[in-house]
Amino acid sequence: MKKRVFIGKVILKDRILQKGMVEIEEDKISYVGERKEVDKDSEVFYLEDFFISPGFIDIHIHGSYGRDFLNSSFNDMEEISYFLASKGVTSCLPTLATSSLPEMKKAIYEIEKYISSNVIKGTKFIGIHLEGPFLNPDYKGAQREDAILKPDLNSLNELLSPHVKLITLAPELEGALDLISYLSKKRVIISAGHTSALSQDVERAISLGLSHVTHLFNGMRPLHHREPGIIGVALVDDRLSVEIIADGYHLSDHILKLVTKIKPRDKVVLITDAIMAAGLSNGEYSLAGQRVLVRDGKATLESGSLAGSTLTMNKAIKNMVEKEIVNLVDAVYMASLSPAKVIGMDGRKGSLEVSKDADLTVLDESFNVKLTMVEGHIIYNAL
């Protein structure tokens, strides 16, 4: 396979190379730097008016384009993966909302089959995120209360597989600390979410392996000046990374600015928390069997509770930059290298560096995705 060369404005970890170049050999990056002479037999993409960015990584996404990972066939997952690639996402963790154990086990099995096929027709699935079922019903949000379980090792083991990389649970529940300790030894990332945890609960959980917080501020005990709880600890303790949803509904601009001013950027992770309605119009959809209404891009249950989002990752970056929350370099970092670090894959993914996987996306000035490459394969091309 001949080399592929991309010439344009290259987004690095700390700056943008205005006259940059990225060279790809097979499935790896072989050169990143200032523009130089290219081999005559190389395939060259002259993209001086475009940004060449590391591919985005979404570690919290329930579905899109009319499909939900809880009940997706192999073909459904191909459709989701292609849609995500069209929005610049090169890797993701399919995320399962809380449902019955049989439903979750079946979904895990189907996703594992897709991962094991090694098919690359879109975004690569690099693991599974279980959002539940060991959650606090008081902060269930859009999670099904009838499927929420008390922390139990037997139930946990029914769900565990080598592909489960991240689990969201409520650390204050009786038995949760035992699960955290157990999961930590198995090198599963543990995230606090849908939780009423007090600060002391969080501190104990951190000591046993808790390292992440699911959609900060949403689905958790509010911040209070005398009992800061999960939010207060998450903001000031950099042993914890945090997820934020920059869709204009889940968090105000002031809160986005607060989080990004307090936390270092490698501890802030942009997620979409997208559901099956992402990429489609307003209407009625579902999440784990619950009716979801989408109006003006806002997804809610009939109760009014937010039910995930219709956000795409390129739009999340656009919102962060255009609302002057952070600059483009930092926004891309939070959508690529930060999530790679959370899941321990920053040695291979998350930035444009020599020997890393050839995952990249090309953006125009309006943050529209023009091309996406996944491990050396051009999946989406709208140039």
UniProtKB/TrEMBL annotation:
Class of enzymatic activity (EC top level): hydrolase
Could you confirm whether the keyword rRNA-binding appears in this record? no
**Biological processes annotated in GO:** N-acetylglucosamine catabolic process
Span of domain Amidohydrolase-related: 51-378
Q: Which GO terms describe its molecular function?
A: metal ion binding; N-acetylglucosamine-6-phosphate deacetylase activity
Cofactor binding summary note: Binds 1 divalent metal cation per subunit.
Enumerate the InterPro entries for this protein. Answer: Amidohydro-rel, GlcNAc_6-P_deAcase, Metal-dep_hydrolase_composite, Metal_Hydrolase
Record: active site = 273
Q: Which Pfam families match?
A: Amidohydro_1 (PF01979)
So which cofactors does this thing need? Answer: a divalent metal cation
Query: What are the binding positions for Zn(2+) in this chain?
Result: 131, 194, 215
Record: residues binding substrate? 142, 218-219, 226, 250, 306-308
Q: What is its EC number?
A: 3.5.1.25
Gene3D superfamilies the record matches: Metal-dependent hydrolases, Urease, subunit C, domain 1
Task: Provide this UniProt record's keywords sorted from A to Z.
Answer: Carbohydrate metabolism, Hydrolase, Metal-binding
For whether the record's keyword set contains Repressor, the answer is: no
Origin: domain of life: Bacteria
The UniProt similarity line reads: Belongs to the metallo-dependent hydrolases superfamily. NagA family.
Name-wise, this protein is N-acetylglucosamine-6-phosphate deacetylase
Which organism's genome codes for this protein? Dictyoglomus thermophilum
Taxonomic path: Bacteria, Pseudomonadati, Dictyoglomota, Dictyoglomia, Dictyoglomales
Q: Which gene encodes it?
A: nagA
